[in-house]
Amino acid sequence: DQQVKQNSPSLSVQEGRISILNCDYTNSMFDYFLWYKKYPAEGPTFLISISSIKDKNEDGRFTVFLNKSAKHLSLHIVPSQPGDSAVYFCANAGGTSYGKLTFGQGTILTVHP
Amino acid sequence: DAGVIQSPRHEVTEMGQEVTLRCKPISGHDYLFWYRQTMMRGLELLIYFNNNVPIDDSGMPEDRFSAKMPNASFSTLKIQPSEPRDSAVYFCASSPWGSYNEQFFGPGTRLTVL
């Protein structure tokens, strides 16, 4: 079974600085990870993903890093903007059921102007 | 496209009543997912369908919960009878074939069972 943990419930960052959100997982067999962003009163939206054949994936201001030996991934947002303020969920996909995502508890990011 | 549509957006009911949540996925998407979000358990998958067929319902908490997908454009999640611990936000999501992990979520239904 897979567990995905986001140990920081919240993060506060100044506009223009880097935001780093962290996620740990337990099962190395499940090799595809995603980040979702969620605004209040809306459903989560897909942000970026990474598979275990890569260490890094970039999309504009968003970069995800995967450290397989530490079973750890992180999402970097550079530069951070007030509109990035949201809840960020780390999720893992894998195993025998395609599409079966396991989500972390989420980290509330607040970017101050 | 209008995105995934869920109704109602809010539902308040009394313990013991039947509750039906509805979802219209994005047209052309092959996968449909039902999730529940609570403070205690976070966001958890209840059941998902592929081409209207239930594939994995291992997340459905009890027999009081049932889900159907009679056609490609409609799904329901029913709770009968409802209990206060069922209070949560229920999300429906859909995804196209080949991108089943990159799911498009609806706005959710906030259910309160008194």
Q: Rg of chain A to the nearest angstrom?
A: 13 Å
Measured between the Cα atoms of the first and last residue of chain A, the distance is: 41 Å
Structural class of chain A: mainly beta
DSSP helical segment count of chain A? 0
Largest sheet of chain A: 6 strands, mixed
User: Mean pLDDT of chain B, rounded to whole units?
Assistant: 94
User: What percent of the residues of chain B sit in helical stretches (DSSP H or I)?
Assistant: under 10%
Give the overall average pLDDT of chain A. 92
Radius of gyration of chain B: 13 Å
The total count of helices of chain B amounts to 0
Distance between the termini of chain B: 36 Å
Largest interchain contact: A-B, 21 and 23 residues
User: What is the beta-strand fraction of chain A?
Assistant: over 45%
Overall shape of chain A: globular
Which ranges of chain A are low-confidence, i.e. pLDDT below 50, for 5 or more consecutive residues? none
Indicate the percent of residues in helices of chain A: under 10%
Key traits:
heterodimer, A: about 110 residues, 6-stranded mixed beta sheet, about 55% strand, globular, B: about 110 residues, mainly beta, 7-stranded mixed beta sheet
Structure report:
The complex is a heterodimer of chains A (113) and B (114). Chain A is 0% helix and 54% strand. The radius of gyration of chain A is 13 Å and the shape is globular. Chain A is mostly beta strands. In chain A, the strands form 2 sheets. In chain A, strands 2, 4, 5, 9, 10 and 11 form a 6-stranded mixed β-sheet that branches. Chain B is mostly beta strands. The model of chain B has no long low-confidence stretch (mean pLDDT 94). The A-B interface holds A 32, 34, 41-46, 49, 89, 93, 97-106 and B 4, 31, 33, 42-45, 48, 50, 55-56, 91, 93, 95, 100-108.
